[in-house]
Amino acid sequence: MKKTNWLKLLGFALLLTVLVACSDNGGNDTSTSDDTPVVTDAPAGTIANADTDEPVADLEPVEIRIGTWDSGQGLEMKEQIAASFMAQHPHITVIIESVPDGFGERLLTQLAANDAPDLFQIGDGDVAMFQSRGAFADLTPFINGANPMNLDDFFGPMLEVGRIGDGIYTLPKDFSTMAVFYNRDIFDEAGIDYPTNDWTLEDFREIALALTTDERWGAQWMGGTRGAMPLIYMHGGDVIAPDGQTVLGYMDSEGTIAALEFLNQLTNVDRVIPSSVELQAFQGVNLFLSEQVAMTAHGIWSANQFVEAGMNFGTVMLPSGPAGQFGTVFYAGYGMWSGSQNQEEAWMFLNYLTTQGQHIMAQHALTAYIPASIAVGQPDIPHVGAFLDMVEVMRIFPERLNPAFNPTAGREFNAVLEEIQLTNDGSADIRTLLENAASRGQDEMEEEMRFMD
Q1: Is the pLDDT score of 171 beyond 60?
Q2: For the domain bounded by 3-19+28-176+330-399, which CATH number is listed?
Q3: Residue 185, SS3 per DSSP
Q4: CA 431, CA 350: separation in Å to the nearest integer?
Q5: Predicted confidence (pLDDT) per residue in 49-60, tens digit
Q6: Are 352 and 147 contacting, i.e. CB atoms less than 8 angstroms apart?
């Protein structure tokens, strides 16, 4: 990779969402939060012993650097994992470089200077962009090499986020799917049965109508493209072709139009979910926690707040639509820098971090490493089950299919979503809005792709 390519990458990436932890704003943040607790009383996990049959006393000392935006509890866990690894491999020193603020800009600068960490954390929406610029080493030879990894030990769909073409370029740190939280007490007071995993979008709408009062919305649905995608999939639509090259005929497809018309119905006609305009008056307020909504379709990262507040709540899979039941994913992972001079040692730690180290991480967030998930009892925690069930119906998000999507066609699509919110009488001409967005988005995306090349 020539240094000039990294300078071009720097200019391109400034147009994109930087690497940040997944926030609760329903937008296009592309990674899970490092403060994303999913359990409070899960049994403590332990890290299994690594293979230490080979003597290490005569090995040359090696330092490997790990770039992360982790802080607080997330950083402490990573440091604990690193300490355990170094105790078993004393010739390897793991240096964790924590940059909680401005991590994305820092990483891009390091890449441009040919001085990136050997391993670095990555948000899901940036995987394709960094891979397209050659930042990642293909992990496949290491996975199948002398220190192999059993991919069957992972939730298969989570590996797909880092799989591009024939290679695997990132491995999962933690994740969240999208499911529905519901307030049992509100349901009980209204005499409404709790939803089950076989419910439909029409069931969701009817329940939301029944639970809406002058003081409370019946439901809330995550905003932004990532929140809208499950609804689009449920109606048989999409916003981009499977090969990631085309939005025309997808963003303006009948299924996508139907999905946004359903969202418009809920927001501006039925008024059972708050619009983005209404939400501005509640900045910083979790509407489900404050019981101003009875249900919320969201990620898992607020679950501990609900547990700690003593809420009587449940979770259920997203409902199914005319085309079936689908969801999305929020993911943080790790990649190996293609320019690392210590790739063998970096792989040793990456392998450890994403397998044995997950016994610690799983006490903090959902893990894609199945043995750790089982060991800490995640499948047995009542509010976690729906999120794990959603793994099997998740779809890859559009910015993973094309690194140029977000600043071009994705921006046009988000503008349509916002226009629907602003047209609060339900009169938005969704078909025309999407046709225009698809046409502009196609031209912009093609131009951006030429720039990237």
Answers
A1: yes
A2: 3.40.190.10
A3: helix
A4: 47
A5: 444 444 445 789
A6: no
